[in-house]
Specification:
The chain has a single domain, classed as Rossmann fold (3-Layer(aba) Sandwich), CATH 3.40.50.2300. Helix content is 47%, strand content 20%. It is built from six helices and five strands. The chain has a five-stranded parallel β-sheet, sandwiched between helices. Strand 3, helix 4 and strand 4 form a beta-alpha-beta unit. The relative contact order is 0.19. It binds magnesium ion. Magnesium ion binds next to loops.
């Protein structure tokens, strides 16, 4: 059953700002019935990824303390090149998306996060029903 499959996915959300995390978490959990786990910096993201092989998708804020999302994604991709990582970034500069894809991100969402865009991109990657 689709709902049971959805529950087998654990989404790692790396976001240092509470408000941003709350929005991402709400959209993901309410729309897909997925479990989420939060970290607040890149070091925690890498450690948590190592400790949770059931993680199937990472939402990665770029600007975080201790270690940024770009370095954390490099390390996570070194552990598992197949894990999808979506960059969540306030930087809306031209050419940013290309730079992020070069850094290994599979997708890119700029803040403020639009629910429809987030759900579409998560669904494209995980193949879930809303
Ligand atoms: Mg941040």
């Amino acid at each position: 059953m689709q709902q049971d499959e959805d529950r087998n996915n654990l989404i790692l959300i790396a976001e240092d700002e509470d408000t941003n995390f709350f929005v991402l978490d709400l959209f993901i959990r309410k729309s897909f019935n997925l479990k989420t786990i939060r970290v607040v910096n890149g070091v925690e993201a890498v450690e948590t990824f190592k400790n949770h092989p059931e993680i199937t998708l990472v939402l990665m804020d770029i600007k975080m303390p201790v270690m940024d999302g770009i370095e954390a994604t490099r390390r996570i991709k070194a552990i598992n090149p197949d894990i999808p990582v979506i960059a969540i970034t306030a930087y809306a500069l031209a050419g940013d998306e290309q730079k992020l894809r070069k850094a290994g991100f599979d997708e890119y969402i700029s803040k403020p996060v639009q629910k429809r865009e987030l759900l579409r991109k998560v669904n494209n990657i995980l193949g879930l029903s809303e």
